[in-house]
Write a structure and sequence with these properties.
The structure holds two protein chains of two kinds. Chain A contains twelve helices and twelve strands. By secondary structure, chain A is an alpha+beta fold. Chain B is an alpha+beta fold. A five-stranded antiparallel sheet of chain B has the order 10-1-2-11-12. Classes of the chains: A alpha+beta, B alpha+beta.
């Protein structure tokens, strides 16, 4: 149906008979887009994109329709299925065709940051969404929760980030329903990276950090007999471990296991054939293909300013309040110096119980408070010099 | 018909002095001007637009309103390229009908907004050149405004201006409705009459300073009783 093709709408109850009828009637039409799109579209595609045919755009509309070799590439849907991530769609003419010159600018420019510490993962971002000089939205949300234990910061084009986060949330939920457990942060990062890969080289711009907490759940099919309490571990190994590993050790009370393990437990764990990591996870995923694991990331036009504050203050042993104030200070300094960051700051904290959001704070007040402080300090200094 | 400006950068006037060799290329987009505004109140929503359709130096029509009624509780305002506005509203109408037939209920404002976001993003690589603003009542009966960018990024606001005069109108709305950048002012909630008056004043100011805005103003007020439309004349020059 023309309507379905125009709207990219797929009726779930479309039966094969009607499909064949359409194929029959449209066969004679040489410039037919419907046949190719009906046959290539499947229900497992992540998103149907309309890709313009470069040839049609080069010609002026007066000569429209007189092109000899008509390509049916104008209504191809991008076929990405998580079942076969290696099959890259060959019908995408992205890198070679010139894209349509857009008459409007897209939203860019931001400061987002995330780091890991003993109390979990902290993510912070500003809220200004700018559009080449104009502030399109002073109260946008750049940290989007994906599920109860995973949060993603977004940087780049806001439409791209919002939609791809939605698609990621959908795929993670399907994974959870199919496999009975949540996908780890590492897995989610890999999934997002593979979903964005076919669009490498196009103007899609997504730079996200995924901050989450893995595990903490009992795996399916695990037997009660193999549940081991790791708190009773030998004291000799503890002194060799770093802060991070000690923390993970005290945390894991059930079946999950940190990377290092002592030999006494090895037999039972290998018998289970399942080693899962539990704890915080922080990954950076970019639409140009980068996928990195780390403990501290800052993304966006204001990131150099944020990095200077974070590198100075972030340690593993921070308390939650200290970490929150460092994150806030970093975003504040970045908004102070970067023109494309500003307005308010959002802070999300992810622990084993899920994410919690701190109320959005307007940084305008902070500027005035700082000015007051400076004024008081200046006065104090003057008094000292006078009395000397 | 080839217009006097040729196929230059849409929305900008072509330079009439010699700047050097210029490559002319067909652009599938055109900028037809127009401004749209939406305000959400406690139990009402207002969507207003001017009715001028222009292209470059010419005015094609003085009676082309940019608000389209979608359901009994939702109105959408589309400004930008008129061709894409028409097609987009046809697609939205079709999707609304499909939803009604398969789910036996009308789409809520929030659902329409989410659907429009995916429709727009489906054309990420050849976008609809339309600035959309949806105004309506949500499930609880409160006013809701959803503003979009041309590729589908959206969020819910209390007020938003879009289109050619948006950069001029948005600060005025921030000040008058959001009480921003003012000290020591009591934050009074917006009543329906005050909101309508404010919208009229704001468009009169827009028509003064923006060449693409003028002719007439179409205001749609959405309450639980229904949608009420008024037309107010503006500057015609």
């Amino acid at each position: 149906m023309a309507l379905q093709d125009l709207c990219n709408f797929q009726d779930i109850f479309q039966d094969s008979l009607t499909k064949l009828c359409f194929l029959g009637t449209f066969e004679k039409n040489t410039a037919c887009d419907y046949v190719s799109s009906l046959s290539t579209r499947s229900s497992t595609s992540l998103f149907n994109f309309y890709i313009p045919a470069a040839e049609y755009l080069d010609e002026s509309p007066i000569q429209f329709g007189q092109i000899s070799n008509i390509q049916s590439s104008s209504a191809i849907s991008s076929q990405e299925s998580i079942l076969s991530p290696s099959s890259l769609p060959t019908s995408l003419p992205f890198a070679s065709s010139q894209s349509v010159p857009l008459p409007f600018p897209m939203s860019h420019g931001t400061t987002t940051l995330a780091f890991m510490f003993q109390g979990g993962v902290l993510a912070a971002a500003d809220t200004r969404s700018s559009c080449s000089g104009l502030v399109a939205c002073p109260a946008s949300q750049k940290i989007l929760p994906i599920h109860s234990h995973l949060v993603g910061t977004t940087s780049g084009t806001s439409a791209d980030c919002a939609l791809w986060k939605r698609i990621l949330a959908r795929e993670l939920r399907l994974y959870q329903l199919r496999h009975g457990r949540r996908l780890s942060t590492r897995g989610a990062a890999k999934l997002l990276s593979h979903m964005l890969h076919p669009f490498k080289g196009t103007e899609l711009c997504v730079a996200a950090t995924l901050c989450g907490w893995d595990g903490g759940e009992v795996d399916d099919g695990c037997h009660a007999g193999t549940v081991i309490d790791l708190r009773g571990r030998g004291g000799t190994t503890k002194s060799e471990m770093t802060d991070q590993e000690k923390y993970l050790d005290t945390l894991n009370e059930k079946v999950s296991l940190p990377e290092t393990q002592s030999s006494t437990f090895s037999e039972q764990y290998f018998a289970r054939k399942k080693v899962s990591f539990s704890g915080p996870g922080l990954f950076y995923v970019c639409s140009d293909g980068t996928r990195l694991q780390g403990t501290l990331f800052s993304v966006g036009s204001g990131s150099p300013y944020a990095y200077s504050i974070l590198d100075q203050g972030v340690r593993w042993g921070l308390t939650v309040d200290e970490a929150t104030s460092i994150a806030r200070e970093a975003v504040y300094r970045a908004t102070y110096r970067d023109a494309y960051s500003g307005n308010c700051v959002d802070i999300y904290h992810i622990t084993s119980n899920g994410w919690t959001r701190r109320t959005r704070e307007d940084l305008k007040e902070e500027y005035y408070r700082e000015k007051e402080r400076r004024r008081h300090e200046g006065r104090g200094r003057q008094d000292v010099t006078v009395s000397e | 018909m080839l217009s006097a400006q040729g196929f230059g950068d849409p929305g900008k006037m072509k330079d009439y002095h010699y700047t050097g060799p210029v490559e002319h290329k067909f652009s599938p987009y055109a900028f037809n001007g127009g401004t749209v505004l939406a305000v959400a109140g406690e139990d009402f929503a207002i969507v207003a637009s001017d009715t001028r359709l222009s292209e470059g130096y010419s005015i094609h029509s003085r009676d082309s309103p940019k608000c389209y009624k979608l359901t009994d509780t939702t109105v959408i305002g589309c400004s930008g390229f008129h061709g894409d506005c028409l097609t987009l509203t046809k697609i939205i109408d079709a999707r609304l009908k499909m939803y009604k037939h398969s789910n036996n209920k009308t789409m809520t404002s929030g659902a329409i907004a989410a659907m429009l976001s995916t429709i727009l993003y489906g054309r990420r690589f050849f976008p609809y050149y339309v600035y959309n603003i949806i105004g309506g009542l949500d499930e609880e009966g409160k006013g809701a405004v959803y503003s979009f960018d041309p590729v589908g990024s959206y969020q819910r606001d209390t007020y938003k201006a879009g289109g050619s005069a948006s950069a001029m109108l948005q600060p005025l709305l921030d000040n008058q409705i959001g009480f921003k950048n003012m000290e020591g002012v009591e934050h009074v909630p917006l009543t329906q009459d005050k909101a309508i008056q404010l919208v009229k004043d704001v468009f009169i100011s827009a028509a003064e300073r923006d060449v693409y805005t003028g002719d007439a103003l179409r205001v749609c007020v959405i309450t639980k009783e229904g949608i009420n439309e008024q037309t107010i004349p503006l500057r015609k020059d």
